[in-house]
Amino acid sequence: MIIRRVTLLGHKDHGKSTLIGNLSILTGSVTEARINDAKKTSEKLGLKFEPGFILDSFYEEREEGMTIDTTRAQVKYGEDAFEFIDVPGHEELTKNMISGASYADAALLMVSTKEDEGIKTQTKRHLFIAKMLGIERVVVAINKMDLAQYKKEKFNEIKDELSEYLTNIGFNEKNIAFVPISAYTGEGLTKNSANMPWYKDGSLIEMLVKFSGKKKAPSDELVVLLQGELGSDKKILTGKVLSGSLYVSSKVKILPSNEELSIKQIVVRGKNVKKAVKDENIALSIESEVSGKIRGSVLLDKDSNKKISREIQTTIFFLRNMNGRVSILINGSRINCKSIQINKVIDIKTGKEVRGSNIKPLGAAKALIKLENKIFMERFDSVPELGRFAIYDNDKFSGIGIVEVVK
Amino acid sequence: MIIQDIKELEEKSIYIIREATNNFKNVAALWSMGKDSTSMLMLARKAFLGKVPFPVIHIDNGIDFPETYKFRDELAKKWNLDLIVAKSEIKPEMSGFACCGANKTVALKKLMKERGFDALIVSIRRDEHGIRAKERYVSPRTKEFKWNYKNQPAEVWGNYLSELGKGGHVRVHPLLDWNEIDIWNYTKREKIPMNPLYFSRNGHRYRSLGCTHCTVPIKSNAKSIDDIIKELEITQVEERAGREQDKEKSYVMEKLRALGYM
After folding, report:
1. Which among B48, B238, B254 has CB closest to A31?
2. Residue A322 sits in which domain range?
3. Do A99 and B154 lie within an 8 Å CB cutoff?
4. To the nearest whole angstrom, how far is the Cα of A119 from the nearest Cα of chain B?
5. Same domain for A283 and A335?
6. Which value, to the nearest 10 degrees, does the dihedral of the CA atoms of residues B127, B131, B132, B137 take?
7. pLDDT at position B248
8. Is the pLDDT of residue A192 over 70?
9. What is the pLDDT of residue A49?
10. Hey, which residues does A4 pair with through a beta bridge?
């Protein structure tokens, strides 16, 4: 069964965990034992039944009514299966939100209609980060409709404001849907609510089926990322095909060292094969040893004109101010940065680029990054795995970035 | 229970196991002789051309089932495993939290110190327990084995780098994405040898295997892997329902894990 990976997004207390808890129950995707456990905890804390406790399992999460770290819940719906990635909504926990959301291929945003809740900066920040992470489709669940007397006007008000923001930050209108729900009462989740006859589109889960699923590979040119040697044998390399296909007969070269290789044998999942395709992990037996460092190198077609570089034009998102040695982490390799030059600041509230050279914590910018060493990178929209990175300040995770131009 | 694409799961696990051996100097794996860690060894064999390249550790409190010891010795020989048995001493009155939390963890700490392992492959899965669902693929532990679950490191896009605190180690979790039913489908497809206790005798079988003091069998007539898969498709019982240490009181798993339990 193919699993559709959907990350939850949204401000804290807008009902993310409650929604997934209730969806798990309504679709019969969770055992009675786990529902009973959540019931018991709710009683113990003197609360009405809180479906969110099916996911929030840490003592602190339940006591404080707040998700601390990301988790996943699988939900079965007919022939479709979802893996919902629940993430914390709290600003201080954006690091954990990024960790969870980076594994998704679609997003479900929760916005509460409640007077003091609504669209917050953190709501927009989550959307902005999701776009950076490569998520192209969003279903917006406008939640707590029961508290807004199921009014169409309230739904439209939020819908209009968010539509504009989503297109500002680059989402295609065709890839956005809005659904009115109540995560707590369960209305609108698996079937439309009689209380909202004005809403004609599908229920939340029906819309999610339409707006999720795997994306097509953007490129078919061969790129294999090498992980290292297999044990002490320097003539057996391991790696992963990131794009295109590798054949035993392929004429390939390795970058940065720029040496040609002859392949003797390819092993995939323990078996000899003639061809390895995208996303397969390979062990590669080669004719003669390679001189340079293997880890972090890439295999390309012999005639490929792709190059290594030390300058990239990027969009970056910062969690915190940095004052130590800055480096980027890309596919398990750390590379020190010489400089990060901010060209434009992105205003998270409007999604627009503005002039400036300083970004505040939890802010974003367009930046030119110069690296200490030349490495092989790709545009994020071409080979995502080689066009995205984590930013470290000394050893502290401090942000993420995507490559727009390799200079 | 959702059945996932085994090929996709296998690829991810192989990648993570290889990343562990590339990122860390001295890797070992825990092997309880259960279905998960045995499947992990199969994946490691696939990742490394037929041979598990790291030592496998059995933390032995001396009260595992006789079938488990027999299974261990046979498979260790067949797969040519570098088996380390870390003995922990057990007192007759010990069970649950005291046994798993203190006793087993102490034996593991001692071994880790002696051998200087910096990464430990542990075959936990998200669907086993709500607390395990919160884990990272690569998860640091302090020198004291503590899991700082309130401030886990970022793990973005499968960039599995983890900062090693001084004297600490990392736990590597290559099976995090697998469901219980996927493990059985894989066992069937790959013909992985399995502990006989998983299969029904006299109307009972062990669904999750621990030691003789704390594990109780469930009612089941599943005598074959196919029967088990059918049973799992409709079960309303949690996998670890037969594991005493999970339910002494609430959050015991969280406490155990924060102290270094698997």
Report:
1. B238
2. 309-406
3. yes
4. 26
5. no
6. 120
7. 43
8. yes
9. 86
10. A82
Residue A359 to chain B, least CA–CA distance (Å) = 21
CB contact under 8 A, A58 and B7: no
Partner residue opposite B49 with nearest CB, options A3, A230, A332: A230
Q: Which of A210, A233, A267 is the last residue of a domain?
A: A210
Domains of chain B: 6-178+249-258 (3.40.50.620), 181-245 (no CATH)
Q: Count Cβ atoms below 10 Å from residue A373 Cβ, excluding itself.
A: 11
Instruction: Tell me, yes or no, if A303 comes closer than 8 A to chain B by beta carbon.
Output: no
Instruction: Provide, rounded to the nearest whole percent, the portion of chain B with pLDDT above 90.
Output: 57
Interchain CB distance below 8 Å, B22 and A240: no
Question: What is the per-residue pLDDT across B160-179, written as a single tens digit (0 to 9) for each?
Answer: 766 666 778 999 999 999 99
> Do A8 and A56 form a contact (C-beta atoms < 8 A)?
no
| Nearest chain A residue to B178, by CA | A74
By C-alpha distance, the chain B residue nearest A334 is B161
Contact between B79 and B130 under an 8 Å Cβ cutoff? The reply is no
Query: Rounded to an integer, what distance in angstroms lies between the CA atom of residue B221 and that of residue A86?
Result: 36
The tens digit of pLDDT for each residue in A147-190 reads 999 999 999 999 999 999 999 999 999 999 999 999 989 999 99
Q: Which one of A188, A210, A232 terminates a domain? A: A210
Q: Look at strands A363-375 and A388-393 and give their pairing.
A: unpaired
pLDDT at B255: 75
Q: Is A215 left (phi over 0), alpha (psi -120 to 50) or beta?
A: beta
What whole-number distance in Å separates Cα of residue A366 and Cα of residue A346?
Answer: 7
Higher pLDDT, A319 or A213: A319
Spell out which residues of chain A touch residue B49, defining contact as CB-CB under 8 Å.
230, 236, 267, 270, 283
A210 to chain B, closest Cα gap in Å: 20
State the average pLDDT over residues B116-124: 95
Q: Residues of B with CB below 8 A from A227's CB?
A: 15, 18-19, 22
Q: Is the pLDDT of residue A63 over 90?
A: no
Cα B238 to Cα B128: distance, rounded to the nearest angstrom = 8
Query: A interface mutation test: which of B46, B137, B156 has the most A CBs within 10 A?
Result: B156
Q: Is A216 inside a domain boundary?
A: no
Nearest-neighbour CA in chain A from B154: distance (Å): 6
Nearest C-alpha in B relative to A97 = B154
Contact A269 B19 (CB under 8 A): no
- Distance in angstroms (rounded) separating the CA atoms of residues B165 and B144: 11
pLDDT tens-digit series, residues A237-278: 999 999 999 999 999 999 999 999 999 999 999 999 999 999
To which H or E segment does residue B78 belong?
helix B66-78
Residues 160-189 on A with a CB inside 8 Å of B are none
